[in-house]
């Protein structure tokens, strides 16, 4: 275990943790080459049981942490942020553990009595180390999928049945049992509107190395009818084909266009959805968001634009040299090939902010005559990209505009004196030693002119300034970021 691990004030708990860590260290240094295969398997089984049991204790701690939560104890006012930073896990994983605690941790009643977990048998089996996270996932998904009309007693009996089987079955085998039990409890597949509303969901995954994103959709019947209507018109062969020099959208495609369309049905539906969203953004009928018309915001340096123009000229003269160029950042925090960004400008009035790649000074602000609130947000999209609070991953679309020097303290509403901050972290900003304060990094700083956050004295007595590198990941590679840059 790391020698820098923090200690617990309670001596009994601290001693138990040290014993556990010492045992793990001892096991890690054992010679196992002389063991028989049977002993190796036995050792793996026992280690597996220990690894399975630990999350069961963690959910109890999480439940107690949020029940007795006080933002004065940590650097954020969010349990999720504290978990993510303190355990070095993603916010998504922190939220998943929060939801697991809802089902697996003991609860406190209104009268102060300690109540059993919502899924007591599953929680007990996990604490014993006889079932793992995959088993727990099967049981939780089964319970969540049950119709609301089932009574509590039936639900409890079903949870007990699955938890009992989980003790002796693999997760894939347990999944089969859950499917059969579901068919027994709800043979007609009857679900109410509230059941469907609970299950509706759209999840957009992270971009891969190829900048593609995998999305998962659970559509309610109404949304499905809309999609069917869109696909009937725009997902036909020959329609909305990006390979056509002039894609057919409103008119019927020619026979040649249909014959030259080699896209799969899934690709045609993808292009149909893209065409609908592009038309919506181009229409200007989506209103405004945080002072700007709903639109795509892309930031790039002047050198990136100049290089892209050269690439476009080369691809026109020599199609075999066609390149997509480096990706640029959008207001949502995603990456977009620069050639796609330039091509998109033909379909909508997008905002373009150009910055010098050396000094970061704004060179040109498209579509402006004077600096106004909306225009300043465009500059912040290019400068900050997202929330400036240390470690925060919120993109610019979800941020508010913050005065580095508080307005009440004489701060000015100038572009170089503003910063992006998401709403939860905006509430942390203040002007006293008991709050987070913001200033600009000095000229000698590795990232001059950036917004730095100074923690309150009870979080960091030295009040060492911290910069958010999340939206500028190249900085992680070009300099060593201090451990203290992580809140908490």
TrEMBL record:
Tell me the ranges covered by the DUF222 domain, including all copies: 42-384
* InterPro entries cross-referenced by the UniProt entry: DUF222, HNH_nuc
Composition bias of kind Low complexity appears in 432-441
Instruction: Outline the segment boundaries, as ranges, of region: Disordered.
Output: 432-453, 465-488
Q: Which domain of life does the protein's organism represent?
A: Bacteria
Q: Compositional bias of type Basic and acidic residues: which residue ranges?
A: 472-488
Name of this chain's protein: Uncharacterized protein DUF222
